[in-house]
Amino acid sequence: MNAPFPAEAIGTARLDLLPLRVEHAEEMAAVLSDPALHTFTGGTPDSPEALRSRYRRMTAGSPDPAVSWLNWVIRLREESCLTGYVQATVGPCGDGPLAEIAWVVGAPWQGRGIATEAARALVDWLGRQPVPTVVAHIHPDHRASAAVATAAGLTPTDESQDGELRWRLVTDGDVRVRPVG
Ligand SMILES: CC(C)(COP(=O)(O)OP(=O)(O)OC[C@H]1O[C@@H](n2cnc3c(N)ncnc32)[C@H](O)[C@@H]1OP(=O)(O)O)[C@@H](O)C(=O)NCCC(=O)NCCS
Predict the structure, then answer these.
(1) 3, 50, 68, 178: least buried by Cβ within 10 Å?
(2) Distance in angstroms (rounded) separating the CA atoms of residues 21 and 9
(3) Whose CA is nearest to atom 17 of ligand 1?
(4) Which of 163, 86, 104, 167 has its CA nearest to residue 133?
(5) Residues 6+ apart with CB under 8 A from 78
(6) What integer pLDDT is reported at residue 175 of this predicted model?
(7) What residue ranges line ligand 1, CB within 6 angstroms?
C-alpha cells in the first residue's frame, strides 16, 4: 500500500470529527463512562488516566509501518462537547488497502443520528483516500450499529469473526461502486 496517511479534520452539518489527541482523554472518559456502551463489544469503561495511556499508545501509531491507526473524536459543534469517536485501521489487503471502521456514541447523545452522520463522513473520507474496501464487524443482535453501517453504505456479508458479522463496502475513488456480499 501507499505510505500510511494521517487522520484529517472532517466537518459535517452538525459535527467536527477531530483527529484524536491525548488531551481528549479526560472529557472522553466521561463521554464513555456508561458500562452499557460495552454490551456488544466487551470490556469496561476506562478511567481518565487509563484512557490517557490508551490515547498515548493510539496516537503514537501502529508499530507496523504498513498499518495506519486513524482515530477521531466526534464533537457536536452546537453544544461544543465531545460525544463519541470513530476509528479506522487501514492496512494492506489483496485488492489494495482495507479499512476496518468502528463507531461509539456516548449514552446521553444516542438516538440523535450522530453515529450515522459521523460514519457516513468517515466512509466518504476513506473513499477519497486510496482505500477501496471498508469493513466493520458488528454483533448480529446490534440493531443500532447495523442501521449505522447500512446508512454508511455497507452491506452484511456471510463472513463472521469472533461472533460478529462482517459488513463491507467496496469503493472506486470517490464513487461508491458496488456493495459486495
Ligand atoms: C451503535 C451506536 C454508535 C449508535 O449511535 P447513535 O448515535 O445512537 O446512532 P444513530 O442515532 O445514528 O442511530 C442509528 C440507527 O440506530 C437506530 N437505533 C438507535 N438506538 C437503537 C436501539 N437501542 N435499538 C435499535 N435501534 C436503535 C436508530 O433509529 C437509527 O436507525 P434509523 O436510521 O433506521 O432510524 C451507539 O449505540 C453506541 O455507541 N453503542 C455502543 C458502542 C458500540 O457497540 N459500537 C459499535 C461498534 S461497531
Answers:
(1) 3
(2) 12
(3) 144
(4) 167
(5) 14
(6) 47
(7) 37, 40-41, 102-105, 110-116, 136, 138, 142-145, 147-148, 151
Q: In the predicted model, is pLDDT for residue 174 greater than 80?
A: no
Q: 50, 45, 52: which is closest to 30 by C-alpha?
A: 45
Cα 162 to chain centroid distance, Å, stands at 18
The answer to whether the beta carbons of residues 106 and 131 sit under 8 Å apart is no
CA distances from 95 to 85, 133, 166 (A): 28, 8, 17
Q: For a ligand 1 pocket test, name from 87, 109, 116 the mutation site with the most ligand atoms within 8 angstroms of its C-beta.
A: 116
Best of 15, 44, 82, 148 to mutate for ligand 1, by most ligand atoms within 8 A of CB? Answer: 148
Per-residue pLDDT, 181: 37
Task: Check residue 47 and report its DSSP letter.
Answer: P
CATH node for 10-178: 3.40.630.30
- Run of H or E residues at 138: strand 133-138
Arithmetic mean of pLDDT over the chain: 92
Q: Whose CA is nearest to atom 32 of ligand 1?
A: 147
